[in-house]
Design a protein that fits this description.
The protein has 260 residues and is α/β, with parallel strands linked by helices. The protein has 2 domains: 7-18 and 104-253, 3-Layer(aba) Sandwich (Rossmann fold), CATH 3.40.50.1000; 21-100, no CATH class. Helices cover 41% and strands 10% of the residues. It is built from 11 helices and 8 strands. The strands form 2 sheets. The chain has a 6-stranded parallel β-sheet with strand order 5-4-1-6-7-8, sandwiched between helices. Helix 10 links the parallel strand 6 (199-203) and strand 7. Helix 1 packs across helix 4 (80-100) and helix 3 packs across helix 4. It is globular and about 60 Å long. The model has no long low-confidence stretch (mean pLDDT 93).
């Protein structure tokens, strides 16, 4: 790509924010299995100890009820499709309480990276399947982060939140197709006014990497959950454990690569 990247599309949970989503999913299912669904627990393979693996394998990156159904099917829960709404609603109540209580943090490497990307003249969009993404993004003060870390940027002004930093935000919208279908990322590129071939996507889930590739975009995979092998199988353009590892100078020529 001789013209370089013109757009960058960021997932939120697991990429920009260490969110309580996984905790809420895990705790919600534990509560249901211990109470309302106690009568069917022995018919399932459910185990709290295996939830971390299940979340990364079948839930991460999917819309709420699709993720709920995928987890229930994984554990062999009877009537998984019918029970998915109960599970998804229970999780939503719990995660909102955790977010409002401030039980999340922004990843410093992600904030450094997104500021550097925009300073390089690349438009940025948020594109998360989560309907809670805006709750996170509006609470993260990018101006405070930049000031505390000695980062000078013409794009970071007083009082600026991470939500306001984005040129486009399509998080939480209802799409006909969820990841790994590329609809969400193609919409993000369209709203940035950037061709998919000149865009890259930052994702932490296999389904997100697959969606980026299906849309003809470069895929930057970030492993934050000891899932490098799983992400590598999706064959992203580059795989890192910190966004500080990305060679920023390569973006101007359309190259995603690690620093030497």
């Amino acid at each position: 790509m001789a013209t370089g990247f013109a757009g960058a599309i960021f997932d939120v949970d697991g990429v920009l924010v260490d969110s309580p989503h996984e905790q809420a999913w895990s705790d919600s299912l534990a509560e249901l299995m211990g109470n309302e669904w106690a009568d069917i627990r022995d018919e399932t393979t459910y185990s709290p100890d295996s939830f971390d693996r299940v979340y990364q394998q079948v839930m991460s990156g999917k819309p709420r009820f699709a993720g709920a159904q995928a987890a229930l099917e994984y554990f062999g829960v009877p009537d998984a499709e019918a029970r998915a709404k109960t599970y998804g609603d229970h999780k939503q109540e719990m995660v909102v309480k955790l977010i409002e209580a401030g039980q999340f943090t922004a990843y410093p490497d992600a904030l450094r990276f997104i500021i550097a990307v925009k300073d390089a003249g690349i438009k940025v969009a948020a594109a998360s399947s989560s309907k809670n993404a805006k709750l996170f993004l509006r609470q993260i003060r990018l101006d405070t982060f930049a000031a505390n870390n000695g980062i000078a940027s013409e794009h970071v002004t007083d009082g600026l939140s991470l939500l306001e930093f984005f040129d486009a935000d399509i998080s939480g919208r209802d799409f006909a197709q969820g990841k790994p279908h590329p609809e969400i990322f193609l919409t993000g590129a369209a709203e940035l006014g950037v061709p998919p071939a000149q865009s890259f996507v930052v994702e932490d889930a296999v389904s997100g990497v697959q969606a980026a590739k299906a849309g003809g975009m470069a895929a930057l995979a970030i492993s934050r959950a000891d899932d490098e092998a799983l992400l590598a199988e999706a064959e992203p353009s580059v795989l890192v454990t910190s966004l500080d590892q990305i060679d920023l100078s390569g973006l101007s020529s359309g190259r995603l690569s690690k620093k030497d």
